[in-house]
Amino acid sequence: MDVVEILEAAALLVPEDVATSNDFTASDVWDDLAHDEWEAALCVLQESADGWTAPANFWERLGRAAEMLGFERSREWCRWRDTETRTGLVVRADLVLRPAGETFRRTPIPGAGVLRPMWGIGNRRRDGEPEGDIARVWVEFAPELRPGDRAPVRLLPLDPSRWRHLVPGDRITLYECAEAGGTATVLEPRPPA
Fold first, then answer.
1. 10 and 65 in contact (C-beta within 8 Å)?
2. pLDDT at residue 134, as a whole number
3. How many other CB atoms are found less than 10 A from the CB of residue 188?
4. Are 114 and 52 members of one domain?
5. Are residues 27 and 94 in the same domain?
6. Which residues contact 39 (CB under 8 A, 6 or more apart)?
7. Residue 162 near residue 123, CB atoms below 8 Å
8. pTM of the full structure
9. CB 3.0–4.6 Å: which of 61, 74, 172, 181 could bond 66 by disulfide?
10. For 33-59, what is the mean pLDDT?
């Protein structure tokens, strides 16, 4: 399959009444494809998936198209969303990193889901001591997050079942070493749309 065929196949899966936050619909995807605007079509398809339950092969197809077009971050985003769909959990949070000098981190967190820190989310060991849980971090709307900065993030837990108790407003703590590297307020813990 070539890029256009992949994007067409993905567009056929999107319900007609689903729109992005900018009111783009599947008909806009078809228009983009007719004008060889493949990147625009890919973006609309990715954004449209927030309004419906996309099947797993939807993200796989979009990831393949992004890879063929050479859009690495977009490919990684599709892989991320595919994993969220398969695990059945989306965790969004507002993360604030501690400033450089207050913790060991001196460089930005890469935004595309590379970092896999421990999180203090309230779970405890049998002896009552706090127990950390691993989750990858995707910085939304930015390629990185600098020490001292704040951004919305998505978290991809290693064990989603240990995160299902979270509710909006819960405060969780990021650990890359023994001291806290940042805190986050949970915005939404939910199954994928």
1. yes
2. 97
3. 12
4. no
5. no
6. 69, 71
7. yes
8. 0.84
9. 74
10. 86
pLDDT tops 90 at residue 138: yes
Q: Are residues 82 and 109 in the same domain?
A: no
Residue 168, domain extent: 90-190
Distance CA 81, CA 63 (A): 10
Residue 116 and residue 69 share a domain: no
Residue 183 has pLDDT above 80, yes or no: yes
Residues 120 and 57 in one domain: no
**Taking 90 as the threshold, does the pLDDT of residue 51 lie above it?**
no
Higher pLDDT, 55 or 154: 154
Beta-carbon-side half-sphere exposure of residue 147 (alpha carbons within 13 Å): 13
Residues 76, 94, single domain; the answer is: no
Strand locations in 76-193 (E): 90-97, 109-110, 118-120, 133-139, 144-145, 150-157, 171-175, 180-190
CATH number, position 105:
2.40.30.10
- Backbone φ and ψ for 88, nearest 5 degrees, come out as 80, 25
In this predicted structure, the answer to whether residue 192 has a pLDDT above a threshold of 70 is no
Helix (H/G/I), strand (E/B), else coil: 142:
coil
Domains in the chain, number: 2
**Rg from Cα positions in the chain:** 18
Residue 21 pLDDT exceeds 80: no
Is 75 found in the same domain as 146?
no
